[in-house]
Structure to design on (703 residues):
C-alpha cells in the first residue's frame, strides 16, 4: 500500500495512535490485552504518555480489522509500511523488543492456545525478528515433519508463513535515504493534536509524502498570482506529539534544503464569543519563560502580502453552516508562562517554532484562527492559500519581531538594491517616521515602493512615488525610519537624508501623536483624527511627566509655505465635499494592520493648529490643558522638533502631519496606532498631489 493510502487510513486518529499501530503491526494478530501491553511497555514512560483511549481508537480505525474471537489484525496492505516506519522511527532495537514481548506473551498466556496455527505463527514471527536463521531452520524442520507424519499445521499454513516472512524481510531491508526535495521553499507547520484538516485545502495536489520522526509531511504546490506559470513549492507538516521545536526545524531543513520560510498555522479556543470567527496574524512573537525575548526574522514577502490590498480580494472563504465570514486582526503571541494582556494570544507552539526557525536563519510567519473548530480551520486554510499565492518571494527576514517593520529602514532587507546616482537625484520629497507602524502606513500609500541604499550611508531607505498636481508628473519620495534614540537622532537622520538625496526640497514628518482633550465648546479631537501643523511646532525641549515645573517653549518653527498653500486647497475642496484622502483610508483600512479598532463609521476630521514637541511623554492632564490654552497646541509628539531642525539646517523646508492615536493619559494604548498612522499617511499623499514640482521652497527662519 502507498504512503498516500496510509495517510487516508490514519486520518482522524488521535496523537500517538500511528506509533502504536507501528508496534501492533509486528504480530500476526493481536487481542486487546496485547495492545494494552504495547502501550504500557512503550508509551507510558515518555514525555507525553499515550492515554488508554488511544487503544480503543486504534481498534476502531481502518488501520485494524476484527477477525473474530476477540482478535484483530493490522490491515495486511498497511502492515509492511508500518513495520518499515517502526524501524526508521524507533530503530531496530525497538523492533527486537516488540518481538520479545510477543514471544513472552505467547509463552505465558493462553491467548492463542485454542488456535495452534495462530500460536505457531506468533512464535515464528517473533523468532524471525529475534533470530532469523533459527526461524528459517524451524520452519523447514516443521514443514518436513508435516509432510512425513502430519501435524496440526497444514500445507497452506507453511505457504502463507513463507510468504509472510519474505514480505516482512523485504519491508525491513534498510531503505535508501529519501531524496531531498530542492524546490520546496515554504513549510506550513501545524501543532500536535488531532489531524488538522486545515491541511486539506491549502495545496492543489499532493506529490509526495514524508513520514519523519517528528513530522508527517505532504508535499505540493500553491499557485502563484504573481507568476501563474510557476507555483510555490510547499510542504504541509503536522508535528508529532512530544517533538521538540528544534528537532522539527532541523528535520525540515534536512529534508527540504531550499526551505526559506516556516509558517505556523492552526486554531485556538475563543476568548469570548465562540461564534465570532477570526483570523489572527502575529504582529510579534515573544519567546522565553521570562517573556523578554522577541523573535526577529518575520518574513518580508508574506508581511507585504498580508498588508497589501490584494489579500481581501484573493481569499475565497469557505461556505459552512454558520455562515460566518471571519474578521482579520493582528496580535502579539506569547508563551504559556508569560504575562498576557487582553488581546494577546497565549500559545505554547508558535513561540517555540518561530524561535527555532530564527535560530536556523529561516524567516517565519504565524496565522491562527479562532474558535478551535473545523470551520475556523477551513478559514485559516483559505487565508493561507491566498497569502502564499499573492506573496512575491520568501525568505527575506525583517530585523524586528514586529511585522510593522514592512517599511523599516534599519536593516536586513536582502532585496535592497543600491540606488543609482540618478535615482538619488530624482528624490525631491523626504518622509521621516519614528515608528515601524508609521513607516508601514507611509509605504502603503507610496507607488512602486522598494528598499534602497546609498553608498556610505548606513540608513535603509524606501524609494517610491506619489502623483503630483501636473498630469503625468510624479514626486519621487524617499522614506526613512528613526532609530529609537530620541530627538538628537531625529535631527541627524534629517541631515543624513539631505546629504544622501541632494535633490530634496522638503522633509515631511508623518506619523502618530497624542491628542489634547478640548474644553467644552471647542472642536472635539477624536482618535483617528488628522492634525496638520499649520501653525508650526512648539518645541518644549525636556519636560517632566508629572505635575512639576511648567514646560518652557524653546521656539516655534514655521512649516513649508508651498505645503501650507496645498493644505489650503485641500481645505477648500473639503468644504466642497471632496476629500481624496478618505478614499485611501477606506481602501487600506481593510488591512489588519490598519483596521479601525471601534465600529464608529465616522470619517476622521482634519484639524489645523500647532503641535507640541517634547522629549518625554506628558502624562499630566493639568500641563496638557495649560499647553492647549496658552500655546494653542492640539497634539503632542516627540520627534518633530529635531527633524524640522535638521531639515532647516540643510536648507530644506519641513511639514508635519499626525494622526491621533491616544490622549497621552492613563487610557493610552497601542490599539489605535495603525489606523492613526494610516490617516496621517493618506492625508500626506493628498497633500503631495497639490504640491507643485517647481516653486520657491525656502528654509524658514525660526522665530
Amino acid at each position: 500500500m502507498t504512503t498516500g493510502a496510509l495517510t487516508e487510513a490514519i486520518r482522524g486518529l488521535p496523537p500517538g495512535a500511528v506509533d502504536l499501530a507501528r508496534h501492533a503491526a509486528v504480530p500476526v494478530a493481536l487481542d486487546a490485552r496485547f495492545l494494552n501491553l504495547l502501550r504500557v511497555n512503550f508509551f507510558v514512560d515518555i514525555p507525553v504518555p499515550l492515554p488508554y483511549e488511544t487503544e480503543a481508537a486504534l481498534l476502531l480505525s481502518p488501520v485494524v480489522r476484527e477477525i473474530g474471537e476477540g482478535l484483530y489484525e493490522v490491515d495486511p496492505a498497511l502492515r509492511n509500511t508500518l513495520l518499515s516506519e517502526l524501524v526508521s522511527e524507533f530503530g531496530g532495537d525497538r523492533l527486537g523488543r516488540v518481538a520479545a514481548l510477543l514471544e513472552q506473551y505467547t509463552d505465558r498466556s493462553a491467548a492463542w492456545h485454542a488456535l495452534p496455527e495462530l500460536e505457531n505463527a506468533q512464535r515464528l514471527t517473533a523468532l524471525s525478528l529475534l533470530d532469523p536463521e533459527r526461524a528459517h531452520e524451524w520452519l523447514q524442520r516443521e514443514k518436513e515433519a508435516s509432510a512425513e507424519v502430519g501435524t496440526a499445521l497444514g500445507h497452506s499454513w507453511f505457504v502463507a508463513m513463507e510468504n509472510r516472512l519474505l514480505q516482512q524481510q523485504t519491508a525491513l531491508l534498510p531503505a535508501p535515504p529519501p531524496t531531498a526535495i530542492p524546490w520546496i521553499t515554504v513549510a506550513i507547520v501545524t501543532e500536535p493534536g488531532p489531524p488538522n484538516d486545515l491541511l486539506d485545502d491549502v495545496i492543489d495536489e499532493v506529490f509526495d509524502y514524508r513520514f519523519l520522526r517528528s513530522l508527517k509531511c505532504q508535499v505540493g504546490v500553491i499557485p502563484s498570482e504573481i507568476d501563474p506559470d510557476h507555483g510555490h513549492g510547499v510542504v504541509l507538516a503536522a508535528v508529532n506529539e512530544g517533538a521538540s521545536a528544534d528537532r522539527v526545524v532541523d528535520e525540515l531543513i534536512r529534508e527540504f534544503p531550499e526551505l526559506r520560510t516556516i509558517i505556523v498555522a492552526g486554531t485556538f479556543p475563543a476568548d469570548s464569543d465562540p461564534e465570532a470567527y477570526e483570523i489572527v496574524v502575529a504582529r510579534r512573537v515573544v519567546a522565553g519563560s521570562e517573556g523578554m525575548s522577541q523573535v526577529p526574522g518575520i518574513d518580508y514577502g508574506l508581511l507585504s502580502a498580508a498588508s497589501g490590498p490584494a489579500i481581501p480580494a484573493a481569499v475565497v472563504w469557505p461556505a459552512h453552516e454558520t455562515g460566518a465570514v471571519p474578521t482579520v486582526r493582528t496580535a502579539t503571541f506569547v508563551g504559556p508562562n508569560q504575562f498576557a494582556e487582553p488581546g494577546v494570544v497565549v500559545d505554547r507552539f508558535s513561540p517555540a517554532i518561530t524561535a527555532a526557525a530564527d535560530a536556523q536563519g529561516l524567516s517565519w510567519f504565524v496565522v491562527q484562527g479562532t474558535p478551535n473548530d473545523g470551520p475556523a480551520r477551513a478559514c485559516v486554510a483559505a487565508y493561507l492559500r491566498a497569502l502564499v499565492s499573492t506573496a512575491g518571494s520568501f525568505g527575506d527576514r525583517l530585523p524586528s519581531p514586529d511585522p510593522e517593520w514592512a517599511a523599516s529602514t534599519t536593516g536586513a532587507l536582502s532585496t535592497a538594491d543600491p540606488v543609482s546616482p540618478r535615482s538619488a537625484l530624482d528624490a525631491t520629497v523626504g518622509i521621516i517616521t519614528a515608528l515601524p507602524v508609521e513607516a508601514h502606513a507611509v509605504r502603503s500609500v507610496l507607488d512602486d515602493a522598494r528598499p534602497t541604499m546609498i553608498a556610505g550611508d548606513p540608513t535603509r531607505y524606501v524609494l517610491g512615488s506619489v502623483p503630483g498636481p501636473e498630469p503625468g508628473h510624479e514626486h519621487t519620495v524617499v522614506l526613512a525610519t528613526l532609530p529609537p534614540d530620541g530627538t538628537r537622532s531625529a535631527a541627524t537622520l534629517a541631515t543624513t537624508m539631505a546629504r544622501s538625496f541632494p535633490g530634496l526640497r522638503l522633509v515631511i514628518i508623518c506619523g502618530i501623536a497624542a491628542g489634547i482633550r478640548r474644553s467644552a465648546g471647542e472642536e472635539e479631537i477624536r482618535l483617528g483624527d488628522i492634525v496638520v501643523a499649520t501653525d508650526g511646532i512648539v518645541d518644549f525641549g525636556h519636560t517632566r511627566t508629572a505635575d512639576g515645573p511648567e514646560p518652557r517653549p524653546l521656539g516655534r518653527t514655521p512649516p513649508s509655505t508651498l505645503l501650507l498653500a496645498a493644505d489650503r486647497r485641500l481645505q477648500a475642496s473639503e468644504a466642497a465635499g471632496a476629500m481624496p484622502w478618505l478614499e485611501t483610508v477606506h481602501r487600506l483600512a481593510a488591512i489588519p494592520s490598519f483596521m479601525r479598532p471601534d465600529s464608529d463609521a465616522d470619517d476622521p476630521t482634519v484639524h489645523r493648529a500647532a503641535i507640541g514637541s517634547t522629549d518625554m511623554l506628558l502624562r499630566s492632564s493639568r500641563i496638557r490643558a495649560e499647553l492647549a490654552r496658552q500655546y494653542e497646541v492640539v497634539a503632542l509628539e516627540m520627534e518633530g522638533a529635531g527633524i524640522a531642525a535638521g531639515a532647516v539646517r540643510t536648507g530644506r523646508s519641513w511639514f508635519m502631519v499626525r494622526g491621533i492615536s491616544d490622549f497621552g493619559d492613563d487610557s493610552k494604548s497601542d490599539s489605535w496606532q495603525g489606523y492613526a498612522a494610516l490617516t496621517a499617511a493618506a492625508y500626506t499623499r493628498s497633500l503631495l498631489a497639490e504640491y507643485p514640482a517647481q516653486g520657491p521652497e525656502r528654509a524658514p527662519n525660526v522665530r
Observations:
- The chain has three domains: 3-171, 186-401, 407-688.
- The domain at 186-401 is CATH 3.40.50.1580 (Rossmann fold).
